[in-house]
Design a protein that fits this description.
about 15% strand, Rossmann fold, single chain, five-stranded parallel beta sheet, alpha/beta, six-stranded mixed beta sheet, about 300 residues
Length: about 300
């Protein structure tokens, strides 16, 4: 059993904040009924193979809209997704500045999208002002953003295939000789400056475009601790800081040894500094998180 913990037989009535309703009713209760007597071992093996997260409560802390796909996949694997969104994402209030910047996009050599949110909100603003400039090079920090762009019909995307962060993108051959280039970086409010600073040091002119804003919802940390999650997923350093700040000393003690699944070494290092006792580094995206959860559960 994962981490020596007992798997919960409960269903969605234990979920945090609001249920991760993936449209399957009470199907899980029936699936978790394991017959006794003859054939029980076979049923147990079949359940383990088909639902490797059976009965395990997994806290998903992404913004709500982004959390639903991962929640569905956890549920399909037999787990109980607990939605506890540590960040809210919304369009920027100053849309005039955003549209003015995008109206000049054809003057730039390269557009970089920091996240799938940057693609979503940046593309929405672009649709209201015009089309993608045909000569514009497009780059992303990760494959999630690249996938979002491909779904919009954008091909030939510059993106790392191994390390999915600013450092990984900056290491690519396509970004070594950028002297004289004009670069527009689409992102949320704030964030790391490494990407822009490095491109400037290579001779590029860089302009940031704030196309969405993040905020920290007011949550009751007691709801999280009372639900006793078997594992917690956190996908950004900002979200992890918010979680740690909202937890009181008793809540930190209660959750400290709960396995914490994070997709980047930078987040993992922060978690260790905070005092989390079981930090699990995963691959990127939903695939990486789910694979790591299943490996841990087995």
């Amino acid at each position: 059993m994962a981490n020596g913990r007992t798997r919960s037989p409960h269903t969605r009535d234990t979920l945090l904040a609001q249920p991760a309703d993936c449209g399957r009713g009470n199907e899980r209760e029936e699936q978790l009924l394991i017959p006794a007597g003859e054939g029980a071992n076979g049923s147990l093996r079949e359940l383990h193979i088909n639902q490797p997260l059976a009965g395990l409560k997994i806290a998903v802390t992404r913004p709500r809209e982004q959390a639903l796909h991962l929640a569905r996949r956890i549920e399909q694997a037999g787990g109980i997704p607990l939605l506890f969104p540590l960040l809210d994402i919304a369009a920027v209030q100053d849309s005039q500045t955003l549209h003015e910047q995008i109206s000049r996009l054809a003057q730039f050599d390269l557009a970089i999208f920091i996240s799938p949110n940057a693609v979503h909100y940046g593309a929405a603003a672009l649709r209201s002002t015009g089309n993608w400039p045909p000569a514009l090079r497009i780059a992303t920090v990760g494959q999630g953003s690249a996938k979002a762009l491909r779904e919009l019909g954008i091909a030939n995307i510059i993106a790392p295939t191994e390390r999915f962060d600013s450092e990984g993108l900056l290491a690519l051959p396509e970004l070594q000789n950028v002297a004289g280039w004009r670069v527009m970086i689409f992102r949320g409010d704030g964030g790391r400056e490494l990407l822009g600073d490095t491109l400037k040091s290579r001779g590029a002119a860089v302009e940031y475009v704030t196309c969405y804003q993040r905020s920290k919802p007011q949550l009751d940390a007691g709801v999280l601790t009372a639900s006793a999650p078997d594992a917690i997923t956190v996908t950004s350093s900002e979200a992890l800081v918010h979680l740690w700040q909202m937890l009181g000393e008793s809540a930190r003690t209660a959750l400290r040894n709960t396995p914490l699944f994070v997709p980047h070494e930078r987040i993992a290092e922060l978690a260790r500094q905070q005092g989390w006792g079981s930090v699990q580094l995963t691959g990127a995206g939903d695939d990486g998180l789910l694979s790591a959860l299943i490996a841990w559960a087995n």
